[in-house]
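Entry: Succinate dehydrogenase [ubiquinone] iron-sulfur subunit, mitochondrial
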Amino acid sequence: MFGIRLPLNLTRSTRAATRATMALNSRGLATTADKPALMKTFKIYRWSPDHPQEKPKLQEYKINLNECGPMVLDALIKIKE
């Protein structure tokens, strides 16, 4: 697979994980310009402990899913930045 030989002394699960990582990395080589924007709106309920008298508020963030990883955590990290 991908022309790379993995050492035989690796366990099967390690070899499988390495191949899966390589497959994900090769998919990530396509630029975001090649794909149409896949926008997703995240609504995050926020409250500031520095200002306890203020009510919590709902903030919306629009994220292009092609520009971040496949998990919700990746989108949250992108929002944080």
